[in-house]
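HUMAN: Ready with one sample?

ASSISTANT:
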Amino acid sequence: MIISFLIFAFSIILAITIHEFAHALVADKLGDPTPRAHDRLTLNPLKHLDPLGTISLFLFRFGWGKPVPIDPQNLKNPYQGQLFISLAGPLSNLLLAIILSLILRFIPFTSSLLFSFFFTLISLNVTLAVFNLIPLHPLDGSKILLGLLPEELRLSWTQALTQYSTPILILLILPIAGKSLISTLIFPLITFILNLLLPF
């Protein structure tokens, strides 16, 4: 029980750290010094963990990291820049899951504990990536959507996402008959990706 909790805790902290660092790195490469100024261009987990979000993770297995501060005015193309910055988080989690799955496939593990850690880390990275692609504010998917929309639709969609995303997200997360709607929506995609990655 304690070992399983420690594996989960370390895995989710690592997944969130990679996710937020990727946001900061791409923003920095696109010319926004804001993440660097806030000391977010680092793999130090303490810089990326939100206290309340971390407590929520351990208590309810649902939580969040500290959002990386971005100033769109520093970007050559604010909407396109935010699209790439937002996409970097989920893609970094998927890339880590792919690398770990290749290690599982080609390196035999004699330790069940190490195998369990890799399995948990892959699963959490895939889940974090898919969840963040949901096009609701403040998730990454909302900025990705805005970056893909034609310019004439962005203002109305920005207003709609700002106004309605939070109540919709709460409704999706709240358990109904012991199961949340959001798990029903994203679990098939998560399962599909994990079936491709995991060697069994």
Residues 2-197 form one domain. The helical segments are 2-29, 34-37, 51-60, 78-106, 112-132, 140-148, 151-173, 181-197.
